[in-house]
Amino acid sequence: MNVVLVSSESRYPLSRRKIKKTVLDYLEKTGLDEAEISIAVVGSRKIRQINKKWRNLDEVTTVLTFGLEEPRDEKGILRIGDIIISYPQAREIAIEDELTMDQAIDKLLVHGMDNLLGSR
């Protein structure tokens, strides 16, 4: 059974159910089972801080991914890693590409999943 953990700063309205569905559908298409992934939706300041700390880039970005070096736990569950999405950047993508917020977040989720798992 795949597990999707979603966290968000409370001021951002988002559909956790939709995020989980997008990630679970992606995992199903790749044939992964018994996997876990963490999704965080944050603001511009937070994603900039993380980007500066881990990539030495002092700028806002749309999505960051962090894979785990030792992904299997003692139960054999594949812990894929973390995807961090900037809600304000997703909002800009939604406006530019004429998408709903759910569609813009989905676009960034798929991009993050591709980064973590490679395009399978």
Automatic annotation (TrEMBL):
Species in which this protein is naturally found: Candidatus Shapirobacteria bacterium CG11_big_fil_rev_8_21_14_0_20_40_12
Gene Ontology molecular function, alphabetical: endonuclease activity; metal ion binding; metalloendopeptidase activity
Name this polypeptide is given: rRNA maturation RNase YbeY
Keywords: Endonuclease, Hydrolase, Metal-binding, Nuclease, Zinc
Annotated PANTHER family: ENDORIBONUCLEASE YBEY, CHLOROPLASTIC (PTHR46986)
Cofactor(s) essential for the protein: Zn(2+)
Membership in a protein family: Belongs to the endoribonuclease YbeY family.
NCBIfam families linked to this entry: rRNA maturation RNase YbeY
GO biological process: rRNA processing
